[in-house]
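Re: Re: ligand-bound prediction request (bumping)

Still looking for help on this. To restate: I need the protein modeled with adenosine-5'-triphosphate bound, output as structure tokens. Inputs repeated here so nobody has to scroll up.
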Amino acid sequence: MITIQNLTKKYNGQIALDQLNLKVNKGEIYCLLGANGAGKTTTINLLLGFIEPTSGSALINNLNVFEKAKETKKFLAYIPENLMLYPSLTAIENLDYFSGIAGKRLSKESLISFLKEAGLQENAFENRITAFSKGMRQKVGIAIALAKDARVLLLDEPTSGLDPKASNEFGQLLHNLSQKGVATLMATHDLFRAKEVATHIGIMKDGQLKEEFIASDISLHGLEKTYLSTMNYKEVEL
Ligand code: ATP
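Reply:
Sorry for the wait, this slipped through. Here it is.
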């Protein structure tokens, strides 16, 4: 569903993404790890068409995102670190609005069923977003992805600042979406959640993909060791 080929991005001659090659198939959850400035957000912003590549290509469902920007967006849902929702609208109203933008006119029953599927507690459906925790807002984001019937989910540090229960719930929701065939690419610093939820894990440094694993082939400790050595950081013995 996501195919990135030799994707390169330079800002004023400075390389941010260097010949990246990466694939995420249907039902896979690919977690992209890397220090600040490694190129994770640049990768996601390129897939979203927010920025143009210097060279290379990115395909969503076999369509080039830079040539077919409008079509590829139909398949995509995006949840950034802080999801922008309308604070003065309720959860149902936000879902109605954002699914409407995606071309879906849904009944109240359908909107409710998507919020339920996203795990939002029912007594919050008619509440304004202002009072929502980050975890609750992320669930509205998942409901939007479900309502839109997104085939590809792009996530940029979605679990940062979530408490362990909310982060665990979020991981469960990603797993449910992958069971439906959704391909997920998630940039994160959360090695633990990456190991828990990912089918595939990549480690980036200086705009390059340095390591790539099938998540079940590596232990959490092994992942941490590899991550630190990729960063040229010596593990501290406690
Ligand atoms: P973080 O974990 O901090 O979010 P990241 O892995 O997402 O980091 P990017 O935000 O993709 O990293 O940044 C990759 C490189 O590109 C960095 O060197 C960054 O300074 C540079 N960069 C990103 N956006 C711009 C921009 N708009 N203009 C100039 N340089 C940029």
